[in-house]
Amino acid sequence: TPNFLTPGQLVDTVQRLQQRFPFSADAERDISIELDPRHVSPELCRRLADIGVDRASLGVQDADPAVQRAIGREQPMVIVRAAMDMLRNAGIARINIDLIHGLPEQTERSIVATCHAVAALRPDRIACYGYAHLPHRRANQRLVDTQRLPGPILRLALAEAVCDTLIGHGYGRIGIDH
Predict the structure, then answer these.
(1) Can you give the pTM of this predicted structure?
(2) Side-chain half-sphere of 172: how many Cα atoms within 13 Å?
(3) What percent of the chain has pLDDT over 90?
(4) By three-state DSSP, how is residue 45 classified?
(5) DSSP conformational letter for 173
């Protein structure tokens, strides 16, 4: 997630990329960025719009506070909604939300509630990935209690609950995780 950079550093990085890799003028414009909703600001959104970003993907993972505590990523949905509002106000209207199924403390009931909360925000796309526990590659996963991870039967039920709930909100399945 590149929003650990300051807005100025991010603009500088994109400008350097554009200098070295010219963008085709007739290509479909789709400059995307993945953002942590906890670190989105109006200034960042304005700067992103200025450099041509027209799609943002917000890492929500799960809306349930117990799940968020278990993965060390607490972010109330009010923060996610505020990030979406800031992006939209800056002219970045194409917004994706990323969810993860198979997290510690997740239940079918909690993931359905997460899907309802996310669908209420009306993102353009929702991706829901299966959690892959790779603590040797991702330092933040070393804090995850593996005893609290759902087993394979529950993981499948979680994935099906996500799909069914989002289809019920009018979303269509376009891929394995989308």
Answers:
(1) 0.86
(2) 1
(3) 64
(4) helix
(5) -
